[in-house]
Amino acid sequence: MKVLHVEAGKHLYGGALQVVFLLRGLGAEGVDNVLAAPLGSAVAEAAAPHARVVQIAMGGDADLGMLGRLRRLIRAERPDVVHLHSRRGSDFWGGLAARLEGVPVVLSRRVDNPEPRAWVALKYRLYDRVVTISEGIFRVLEAEGVPRAKLRCVPSSVDVEQYRPGRSERAWLEAEFGIAPDERVVGMAAQFIARKGHRTLLAALPAVLAAHPRTRFLLFGQGPLREAIENEARAAGFGERVLFPGFRQDLPRVLPNLDLMVHPAEMEGLGVALLQAAACGLPIVAGRAGGIPEIVLPGVNGELIEPGDVAALSRHMNALLADDALRERYGAAGREHVVARFSVAAMVRGNLAVYRELAPSR
After folding, report:
1. First vs last C-alpha separation in the chain
2. How much of the chain is helix, strand and coil, in % rounded to 5?
3. How far apart are CA 283 and CA 326, in angstroms?
4. Any idea where the Glycosyltransferase subfamily 4-like N-terminal domain is (predicted)?
5. How many folded domains does the chain comprise?
6. In whole angstroms, what is the distance from residue 95 CA to residue 105 CA?
7. pTM for the whole thing?
8. Enclosing domain of residue 9
């Protein structure tokens, strides 16, 4: 079986990282993978060992030329299935290109934000199957009118061998970020965009720091709101209590040495950073949004808040920072949950099953 994958993301996190995991697993199953990726993108480089990569211009929703470029690529490669992994124009233009070339097409949907029903009715006619990375997204699409027969849920995955518990490098973490040995460290790893909830976290910090003044917060990531959030943290007087290390490639080294992960998101398809944190044995406090409740089980491996509930976020963070045994119990349960449900192998099997529905003879 040959599958042409289309990924328009340039950076190697979130959905693009899932594509690399999928390509690696499918290759081990004997699938011939071809990846169309943006020129000079990190995903193109990372996918090269697992697929034949074709770098093309991808200019977003308004890039009409993407239709022609993808049609030519489909004609040249003659895949059994086209799998579209992202938006940024590749979903619509890719779906139209595959439909015009007569090739079955799969769309992965990774976000839970609703779309206009009229647009849904038009756009989703292009796809033979829509793979949602969480049950939350599945429900959103079904409510918008996408036929249930088209929908399949295949959760995103985490490399549980790469992301593992262990605090053997706590001294390195302290040296790397200027943290004292007696300080607790809380992490958040997310793009700096409004729906991730950074401002909810900032609003919760005074109550947390009043109860646990020897706590540091590491806010990993990049994005359009980063500078504004940094300025707000500085204006609030948090000083060195809140650090902004940017996007880090070494999270498998960083995460196991944290004490707690927070993610007060208002919308979230699933949350790859939460899978990584849970795999590392971290307790989590997160927003009850999208697919997050499929990762964070209240009273088992973490706690959930209603989006924007500052008081609840402060309360749960304080309870976990005060109780070493509770953090350890939640962390162990989180690792067990992720290994059982969100392995790379399970994600590969789920997507391969969808391809075989559409190209059974292959």
Report:
1. 5
2. 45, 20, 35
3. 9
4. 14-162
5. 2
6. 7
7. 0.81
8. 2-157+343-358
